[in-house]
Amino acid sequence: MSRPTSFQAGAAAVATLKARLAAAGWLRATSGNVSVRLSDDSLVITASGSDKQVAHDDDLLWLAATGRIRSGTGRPSAETAIHQAVYGAVPEAGAVVHVHTVFNNLAGQQDDRVIVTDHEMLKALGHWDEGGTVSLPVLPNLADLDRLADLVTRQLDPAVPGILLRRHGLYAWGQDAAAVLRHVEAWEFLFEWIYYRDLARMPTLVGP
Ligand SMILES: [Zn+2]
Question: How many A from CA of 27 to the centre of ligand 1?
């Protein structure tokens, strides 16, 4: 595990992640946020309300491990508490990504867990066992972000690099920017697959 040692290196990693997520169409309507943890446990995180689909160099904040702003303008993402909850609960996490997508909303709308068994894409999430199962927690979308952060801390499984908020979006993490990108892409692939798999199982809507 190697974490960036400077704000500039962390900012470059955040910019790369934003560009990749924007290209996938996962940062619509100023939604989503990205953070990277530096070697001293400080965070580089996107500012609240900025359009992360546009490359800015002034929409990032550098937060000390205590949450105090070291540099940058604007407010930290409103969901900073969730990022901090993930970093607190998963010591090896070096980057956190949050995206609102139609498919992650659909995947989390019914049950308290999204369970995927025996799928090749689970390898991208670090699960290599043949026929293995991954169980992704789905949490209610509490308006009180401190309560929500507490729930994330209690419900997340460090071996499963993600958590879903119902009718809201996905949080994913990884040890660095490359890992979190792999994880968010794997989750979103699986959410799309679940949707189309279930659609394919439905009786045809058109009569014989
Ligand atoms: Zn959100």
Answer: 10
In terms of residue numbers, what domain contains 130? 7-201
Residue in the structure block whose two tokens are 């609102």: 100
* C-alpha 127 – ligand 1 centre gap (Å): 26
Q: Give the Å distance between the CA of 170 and the centre of ligand 1.
A: 8
Beta strands per DSSP E along 80-132: 95-99, 113-117
Q: What is the domain-level CATH number for residue 59?
A: 3.40.225.10
CA of 72: how far to CAs of 45, 62, 67, 75, 207, in Å? 10, 6, 13, 9, 60
Q: Residue 52 falls within a domain, yes or no?
A: yes
CA angle 172, 1, 104 (to 5 degrees): 10
Instruction: Tell whether pTM > 0.90.
Output: yes
From the CA of 201, how far away is ligand 1's center (Å)? 31
Number of residues that make up the chain? 208
Could you report the per-residue pLDDT of 171-184, keeping only the tens digit for each? 999 999 999 999 99
Domains contained in the chain, number: 1
Is residue 208 domain-resident?
A: no
Q: How far is the centre of ligand 1, averaged over its atoms, from the C-alpha of 166 (Å)?
A: 11
The closest of 72, 136, 84 to 108, measured between CA atoms, is 136
Distance from residue 168's CA to the centre of ligand 1 (Å): 6
